[in-house]
Amino acid sequence: MCQSDYTQELPVTFRPELYLQRRGWVLDIMRREGITEVLDIGCGEGELLACLCNPASWLAPPPADVLPPSSDAPKTDPHANNPLAEVHRDVLHPVKIAGLDIDRAEVACAAEGTRPLPPGETSGLWHEPLRWEPLEVKIWEGSLAHVNAEFVNVECVVAMEVIEHLPEDVLQSFAPVVFGAYHPRVVLVTTPSYTFNARFTAPDAPREARTGWPDPTRRTSRIFRHYDHKFEWTPEEFTRWCDAAAEDWGYDVEISGVGKSQEIDEWGRDDALGWASQVAAFKRREDIEWAEWRAARVASLNNLRETGTASEHKLFATHHYIAHEAAHHPKPLQEVADLIIEKMVHFRDTTISLHELWFGNDVAIACGAYLEWLVRAIETHDGLTLQKPSADLSLRWTVELSPSLHHLIPEESPTDTPPDIDEIADPWDPFDDILPEDAQEDVHVVQDVEEAIDDGWGEQARNCDKDAETLAAQVEWAEWGAPQGGWANYSQWT
Predict the structure, then answer these.
(1) Could you give the CA distance from residue 482 to residue 260 in angstroms, rounded to a whole number?
(2) Are 188 and 280 in contact (CB under 8 A)?
C-alpha cells in the first residue's frame, strides 16, 4: 500500500454479515440453554423476534410415559442415549416472546413482522411448515428504564447492540432493571468494540482518515461507528461492566466476541484488535441466598420506576400462533408403519429417507410431531429396516422395505399415468449456487439497488436487500427467518 492510501479507510467486510453473526451467537446460546421465553430489549424492527416465530419442525423428545420403551434401551432411562439428540440440539421451541422498543415506528415494524398469516392463507412455499407448539408474541412500546411486571422472571433477555445507545441515566438503570427486577435465567448482551475501530485505518493514518461520529458526550476524543452511540467500550471496559453487573446481581458471565474482517490486515493487527462486536452471556446463580439478595436489593432501590400508566409501557400488539391439533397425539405405531409402507408403494421405491417421510407432513401428523415415534414405528415393524450410517445426520437415515413386501410395488409400464406435477423434482431451484447451462446466457445479475430500479423493478427494489439478508440468515443460521406457514392464528392490535 502506498503512503497516499493511508488517508483512506481500509476495506473491512464480514462474512456472514456482522449482524447475522451476532444473531447466530444469540440463537446458539438459546439452543444450548433450551430457551422457551424471550424478551428482546431494544428489539428494533423485530428481526430476531421474526426468526423466533418460525415453527420448529418437530417437538422435543416425548416423555417416557408417552413413548413405549425400546427393548434395547437402558432400563434406568430409555431416553438417556437418544439417537436423535443431534437434530434436537439445533431446534428451539419458543412459546412466549416479547419485544420492547422506544421508537414507535420500529415497534410498528416489529408488530407487522411478527404477525401471523390470516386463517386460510398460505405462504406459497413448496412445503407448508406445520406448527406444533403454540406461540404468544407481544410487542411493547416504552423505555427499559421502566419496570414492566409482565417481564419479571422471563427466561431470557436479549440486548443486541442496545446499551451503547442508552443515555447515562438509562444505562445506570439497565442492570437493576434487567438483572434485578426481571432476574431472567439468561441475559445476552452485545456491543461494538472500540478497540476494533483501529482496523478501519492504517496505524499512522491521520485522524481525518476515519469517518464516523465524534463522541457526542465529549467525555472522550473517540470516533464512533454510529451517530446515536453514547459510548463504545474497549474489551477491558466492557469486561469491567459485565463483571460488576454479574457480581452485583448474582450471575456468572462468559465474555467473547464475533466478527473478524475477511481481509488480512497488512500490519498484522487482527489478533490484537480482537472482535468487531463484544458479546456476553450471563447465567443466573441458582441458590436461595442469591434470590433473596436480588429481591432485597430491588426493594431498596427507590429509582426503579414500575409501569403504572399506558404512557410508560404500551402494549402495541399481541399475536397468537395456534398449534396443530395432532401435536402430542401420535397414532398407534402399527398405523404409522402402514402409512410409511403406503408411501413407499405410492412412490414405487424400496428405500426412502426420514427427511422425505417427515416433510410430507402426513407422517409427521401421524407421529404427533415426535421424531422418536417415527423411528420406533420403523424399528418395531418386521417389514421395515432403518439404516443409520454413523457419519450421517439422523434425518438422512434411510428406511428400507423388506424384500418380502416388494411384491406390493407394481411394476412400471409405458401406459402408467405420469406422476402428479407436485411429485416431479424441479431440476433448477432459483436459489441454487449454479444455474443450469441453458439459463446462463439469459440471466442478468443485478449488481445493486439503483441498477434494479433502472431495470424496471421500481422503488420496491430498495427493500430487496433485507429480503436477501433474511434468506442468507436462514441458510447461515439454521434456517431461522421470517415467520412462515399456514397454521391457524389470530392477532390483537391496540
Answers:
(1) 26
(2) yes
Bridge-based pairing state of the strands 96-101 and 37-41:
parallel
Distance CA 179, CA 435 (A): 51
User: Quick one: three-class SS letters along the chain?
Assistant: CCHHHHHCCCCCCCCCCHHHHHHHHHHHHHHHHCCCEEEEECCCCCHHHHHHCCCCCCCCCCCCCCCCCCCCCCCCCCCCCCCCHHHHHCCCCCCEEEEEECCHHHHHHHHHHCCCCCCCCCCCCCCCCCCCCCEEEEEEEECCCEECHHHCCCCEEEEECCHHHCCHHHHHHHHHHHHHHHCCCEEEEEEEECHHHHHHCCCCCCHHHCCCEECCCCCCCCEECCCCCCCCECHHHHHHHHHHHHHHHCEEEEEEEECCCCCCCCCCCHHHHCCCEEEEEEEECCCHHHHHHHHHHHHHCCCCEECCCCCCEEEEEEEEECCCCCCCCCCCHHHHHHHHHHHHHHCCCCEEEHHHHHCCCHHHHHCCCCHHHHHHHHHCCCCEEEECCCCCCHHHCEEEECHHHHHHCCCCCCCCCCCCHHHCCCCCCCCCCCCCHHHHHHCCCCCCHHHHHHHHHCHHHHHHHHHHHHHHHHHHCCCCCCCCCCCCEEEEEC
pLDDT in tens, 420-446: 545 544 444 444 444 444 444 443 444
What number of CA atoms fall less than 13 Å from residue 350's CA on the CB side? 12
CB 470 within 8 A of CB 481: yes
- Give the alpha-carbon dihedral of 475, 479, 483, 486, to 10 degrees: 110
Sign of the Cα torsion 326, 332, 337, 341 reads negative
- The CA distances from residue 255 to 86, 154, 252, in Å, are 26, 22, 10
Q: Which residue has the cell 423388506?
A: 402
Residue whose C-alpha is closest to residue 85's, from 38, 35, 31: 31
99, β-bridge pairs: 40, 139
The DSSP bridge pattern shows strands 489-493 and 384-387 to be unpaired
More confident residue, 310 or 337: 337
User: Which residues on neighbouring strands pair with residue 257, listed in sequence order?
Assistant: 278
Rounded mean pLDDT, 151-179: 96
CA distance 242 to 297: 18
Cell of 444: 442478468
Report the chain's mean pLDDT, rounded to a whole number: 83
User: What pLDDT, on a 0 to 100 scale, did the predictor assign at position 68?
Assistant: 66
Residue 32 confidence (pLDDT): 94
Could you tell me the pLDDT band of residue 417, with boundaries at 50, 70 and 90?
Answer: low
